[in-house]
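Re: export button greyed out
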Amino acid sequence: MYDTIIIGAGMSGLAAGIRLAYYDQRVCVLERHYTIGGLNSFYRLRGRDYDVGLHAVTNFTPKGTKKGPFARLLRQLRFRWDDFTLAPQIGSAIRFPGLELQFNNDIGLLESQIAARFPHEKDRFQQLLRELVDYDDLQQEHFNMSARQVLSQTLRDPLLIEALLCPLMWYGNPCERDMAFGQFCIMFRSIFLEGFARPFRGVRPILRNLVKRFRSLGGELRLRSGVNQIVVQDGRAVGVVLDDGQQIEARRILSSAGYVETMRLCDDVSCVRTDQAGQLSFVESISILDKQPAELGYDRTIVFFNDSDRFHWQTPHEDLCDVRTGVICSPNNYAYDPSDGQLPDGVIRITALASFERWTSLAEEPYRLEKLHWYDRLAESAVRFMPDYRAHVIDTDMFTPSTIRRFTWHDNGAVYGAPEKRLDGTTHLENVFLCGTDQGFVGIIGSIVSGISIANQHCLKD
Amino acid sequence: MTPAAIRGEVLDILENIAPDEDLDSLQDDVSFREQLEMDSMDFLDIVMELRKRHRIQIPEEDYGQLASMASTVEYLTPLMKDI
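Workaround output, generated via the alternate export path:
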């Protein structure tokens, strides 16, 4: 009998596990996959290490910062700032036709870029900064407001509105077309007011720290242990049944599987509202280069591009992908510690919106061919906004919505969770709770904070 | 425990919660919130640590007593005198 069973060994599940194990609970984290990480996992291919999700750790704040999600997670999980070995970004940009807005981890740069490109919007942008809601003050009511509406009341220039929405939607908007104002505030803070960073060795050291800490506190982690069913008796969960039929009892369950996915597991729920699941999924091409990107004239950390004045954020239905907008990321372009040096290979990652339905309906051979085809289409689209790197590619990989579904088990291969967040983490069962992307924050630090706050609110106070 | 020993214990808990923090200059009469930017999650941690280490139960309505080092020591002194 466990005090708490946690479904999913991603960032949020492991973080919640640490909190509970630290306070002497018997905790077991159950993971279906053969490795940890969930949406932020890693793999090895042809002798090279790859990260799955990580472009940048958002919410980065410098050592000594006392406020914000990163400082909070360090205190809550008893880590030192140095344990995360984060190196700040060199500099990023939003690129539209005829427009570039640069930004880095100092909001001053974005302010001056906006003042230069949109002088008539300078004061109104300051007004927008004042209207942002702080993380802890976010209530459900803010979430229900339209970010586009709030922005159009504050700013006048539609191009500036589109340009600001582009990176914020790309890095965490689960809704199509518009964005909830609450999510807008979270993303604005995490990207523009805090910033980007990356550990030299990618996501691995972060996950290793979490697992090591969890285990050292007596927590149990079981891989290849998918939960098939949450057993409910008299309105309470009493335990789970694993894919292999094994039954495990627990006093409560904390699930990072997603809301719809968790409801499907509950044996008292007969009809699951699958339309409430997240919809937005991506393809990503990863190119290994024979040179550092900077040697090719590409020194940006992240570039968010869009090829018209209007930013389209929706699932493509007519085609497998929509390459009009995308994210270009180079893990080389961070200010790594000189003792670490530089990554051995040049890397360019390009992300685009993709249709889960279309990708998952392909048979094996067409799937393989479409991956090759869309690798080229992504590159073709991206080089309009960056130096052409294609002659320097020595190895490639590509993931699709099918890949995301296979490894995360999230409906529709959704990356940022359900459009409607369940901020309080509760479900119809008094001892089943949600953490992770469907609860609230996204991103690496966001999901860790999600696990921490739900563990604190619902699993520690008895 | 004497008030001095309790202060040491609370300091140890704070060190544990915020390992990057320099606590030598902590002022006993100024609130933790102000000096260390502590939030409600951190206060929960002080309570949980005291429970874990000494089996002391602090009801939620008393969390306000833990605002500063001085008020915390004063509040804990009767609760921890026999430990």
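The radius of gyration of chain B is 12 Å. The button fix ships in the next patch.
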